[in-house]
């Protein structure tokens, strides 16, 4: 019990705000972009991508930064191998031709030192479109497991898959796709 309380006191004392253009690398073990889509009106189906990489630059004091995220399309995971194979195919993600989904942003929005949104460009299926991410949670501090400065965030958006040329079975299979990105980055 005393060790737990001591660990919490140390964690609070060592927590920090990202300052002065800190550079971070995406932690692929704690970053899993996920999606949900209405399946023919019957249910909401969910999945995620298991391989993500990227860099983040944060400077809350000047309210600036940069995000570059790459998601391996073939890493899609739904819990059903047959569906994953179909989604990787030409009718949907066409992972062989378009091996990555990318998000880039140099327009970050802060409320004091808290990242609250990012406007950027999503490239999916070879098509690039502007996307607004809302950041509902943002925290930077010392990760007591690996003893490295870490930032984490939860970002959400909704896209129209048809805008990216992925329109198979629309509109019965919903055009709107809700995206949630749980991300952790480690300071370089």
Q: What does this protein look like?
A:
The chain has an eight-stranded antiparallel β-barrel with strand order 1-4-5-7-8-9-10-11. The chain is mostly beta strands. The chain has one domain: Lipocalin (Beta Barrel). Mean pLDDT is 90; it is low at 1-18. It has helices at 2-14, 81-88, and strands at 22-26, 32-39, 43-49, 52-59, 64-72, 76-77, 100-111, 114-124, 127-143, 148-160, 176-187.
The N- to C-terminal Cα distance equals 33 Å
How many domain units? 1
Shape: globular
Rg, please? 18 Å
- The tally of beta strands, per DSSP, is 11
The biggest sheet, with number of strands, parallel, antiparallel or mixed sense and barrel status, is: 8 strands, antiparallel, barrel
Assigned CATH superfamily:
Lipid/polyisoprenoid-binding, YceI-like
Strand portion, in percent?
A: over 45%
Note the total helix count.
Answer: 2
SSE series: HEEEEEEHEEEEE
CATH topology: Lipocalin
Q: What key phrases describe this protein's structure?
A:
188 residues, globular, eight-stranded antiparallel beta barrel, Lipocalin, mainly beta
Secondary structure elements and pairings:
Blueprint: H1 2-14, E1 22-26, E2 32-39, E3 43-49, E4 52-59, E5 64-72, E6 76-77, H2 81-88, E7 100-111, E8 114-124, E9 127-143, E10 148-160, E11 176-187
Antiparallel strand pairs: 1-4, 1-11, 2-3, 2-11, 3-6, 4-5, 5-7, 7-8, 8-9, 9-10, 10-11
């Amino acid at each position: 019990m005393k060790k737990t309380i001591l660990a919490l006191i140390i964690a609070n004392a060592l927590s920090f705000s990202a300052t002065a253009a800190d550079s971070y690398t995406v932690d692929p073990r704690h970053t899993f972009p996920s999606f949900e889509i209405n399946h023919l009106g019957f249910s909401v189906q969910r999945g995620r991508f298991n391989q993500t990489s990227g860099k983040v630059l944060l400077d809350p004091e000047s309210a600036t930064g940069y995000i570059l995220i790459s998601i391996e399309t073939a890493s899609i995971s739904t819990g059903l191998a047959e569906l994953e194979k179909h989604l990787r195919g030409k009718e949907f993600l066409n992972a062989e031709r378009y091996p990555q989904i990318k998000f880039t942003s140099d327009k970050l929005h802060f409320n004091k030192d808290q990242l609250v949104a990012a406007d950027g460009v999503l490239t999916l299926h070879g098509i690039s479109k502007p996307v607004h991410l809302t950041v509902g949670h943002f925290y930077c501090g010392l990760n007591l497991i690996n003893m490295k400065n870490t930032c984490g965030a939860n970002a959400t958006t909704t896209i129209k898959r048809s805008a990216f040329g992925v329109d198979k079975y629309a509109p019965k299979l919903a055009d709107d796709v809700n995206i949630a990105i749980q991300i952790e980055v480690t300071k370089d």
